[in-house]
Amino acid sequence: MPFSPEARATLNHLTEVPTGSFRFVALDVETANANASSICQIGLACVQQDNEIQSFSMLVDPRTRFEPFNIQLHGIGPQTVRGAPGFVAALEQILPLLRAHTLIQHSSFDQKAIGAACRVNKLPTPDLRWDDSVKIARRAWPELRGNGGHGLANLKKVLRLEFLHHDAGEDARAAAQVVLHAEQRLNVPFEDLLTPQSKPRSTTNPKREANPDGPYFGAVAVFSGQLDMPRERAANLAARAGMSVRPKVTRKTTHVIVGDGAMPLFAGRVPDPSEFGGHVQILSEADFRQLMEIAGLKL
């Protein structure tokens, strides 16, 4: 269920950007539509030296359209961001904190979104130190590969984390908690966990025809990036749910599903939906799993 304004107001987040020196800062963003640049919320989780977490979130007016899918996902719409700062003003508020710390994101999407928003607003992309809690989680819990994966939704169940998914401040806090749990499990500081990962699995794109009786018949899906679920299995599930699966994005594409640890790199950038008919939805692997569960399919 998306957040109501009343529910969002009850979240225990700071209303001013935290100050001080922290072990690391986790960052998460929510977007108004499939364009990574359409940031409508930024969340920060600042981990103190004693591992206590200061959470901060702010709404951002993306000054662009909100898609119904995104509103349904996070509950933020045009009315929610009325009066909120634009991205330029928002970045100015948090940039000193970001520059001073290692930043943790759960997947590479948040870094790409900040970079995309800078380009749209004709700002230089800041030189920041980014690392990925998905990679840390894969090292700490390798048994989850193919068994629910390393997305926040599955880690919430496995690690018994308490957070409200798809709120930027809550997701940032969850990413920070993942790092702290990994440190405890492996008994090493997070800096030592940020090592190159094993060779990625094959990303060959399968092709499947849709089940005409599936609830999502008419959708055309493309898989991109490294998935925790085997590509063949993901394609079979999508087809059973009524999605046609194709090896590359075209004007007929309606959904691009990417691994929780990566965003698609089409010529080095996230695709502009306007180039493909204007209706492409970029979903994480966790969102795809949720769609399959709604369709009644066993994962």
Automatic annotation (TrEMBL):
Region (Disordered): 194-213
Domain of life: Bacteria
GO cellular component, as recorded: cytosol
A biological process from GO: DNA metabolic process
Signal peptide segment: none
Compositionally skewed regions (Polar residues) per UniProt: 195-205
Domain Exonuclease: 23-188
Annotated GO MF terms: 3'-5' exonuclease activity; nucleic acid binding
Coiled coil: none
Listed PANTHER family: DNA POLYMERASE III SUBUNIT EPSILON (PTHR30231), EXONUCLEASE (PTHR30231:SF42)
UniProt-recorded name of the protein: DNA polymerase-3 subunit epsilon
Species in which this protein is naturally found: Litoreibacter albidus
